[in-house]
Amino acid sequence: MRIAIFGQQAFGKSVLEAFLDRGDEVAAVFCAPTKPGAKPDPLADAAQERGCRLYQLPSLRGPDAAEALRQANVDIAVMAYVLQFAPQSLVNIPPHGTICYHPSLLPKYRGPSSINWPIIRGDRQTGLTIFRPSDGLDEGPVVLQKTVEIGPDDTLGTVYFDRLFPQGVAAMLEAADLVIAGKHREVAQDESQASYEGWCRDGEARINWHSHVDTIYDLIRGCNPAPGAWTTWNGSRLRLYDARKIPARKLSDVAGKPGEIVAVGEKSVIVAAQGGSIELLKVRLDGAGKVAASAFAAENEIAIGTRLGTEARITQRYPEPA
After folding, report:
1. Final residue of a structural domain among 150, 176, 193
2. Which of 193, 214, 247 marks a domain boundary?
3. Parent domain of 67
4. Which one of 11, 243, 247, 297 is most buried, counting C-beta atoms within 10 A?
5. Which pTM does this prediction carry?
6. Contact call for residues 247 and 275 (beta carbons, < 8 A)
7. Cα 223 to the chain's mean position, in Å?
8. pLDDT digit string (tens) for 57-113?
9. Beta bridge pairs of residue 279
């Protein structure tokens, strides 16, 4: 088939390569412009390396995008991780329309951080949806869905890179084939089941040590590796990555106040929480790199009894590492 690809980053690159490697013709690639000082987008680099016509337009709303897509004369367009808004006047140009990837089981978890939130909420399933993009946010009819299990110790990284990423690439090819062959079904989303979640950023990623240990652990793994669940230590952000949950089996197992370090070992640091404790394995102080939690404790002479998250506000700010 002859296709156009709209996308960004590693997922967009992998979708491009998957279509090309099986012999499809990619007549146009649309990628957001590279910001000044930023590294080139992997999709843009791959498009140029593979000899595809590349468009990096500041907006997909205007006549330039529509004219470029018309000139490409494609059968279908596919959207693989697109943050730019694409109007109906654009996505309806190809004779077989446009299909779009979203990493949740729509209509649940519409929005930009749809992989983080099911993990943070303690869900045991998520998935991916290939749908027809509309002017509403992730609201178009569903063409294809795949369910993905979330294990009790899965993180954002394992769910995405091990499952939603590779299965999403394969699903884009499968859905395109179904649409071109006229064998697909389009199912309207049930608005009564719809939910929208905004970005999962620092405001949402701060740990409340008075929460239950399950809630804290789900937040840590749902923000690992980005944005990184965080607490405070000595007036700055301390981000928590690899961790384990230690549930309390009986009341006497609960030791220490919420946020209090109750053990410092050779490989980890254990912090008290409601209903159990969190074993920290890898952390990062803002402005520095990730280190083993035990090494961080040793370097900063952190002793048992130290409380995390007690500062009312952050008194120091550091630039993020490049």
Report:
1. 193
2. 193
3. 2-193
4. 243
5. 0.92
6. yes
7. 9
8. 999 999 999 999 999 999 999 999 999 999 999 999 999 999 999 999 999 999 999
9. 244, 270
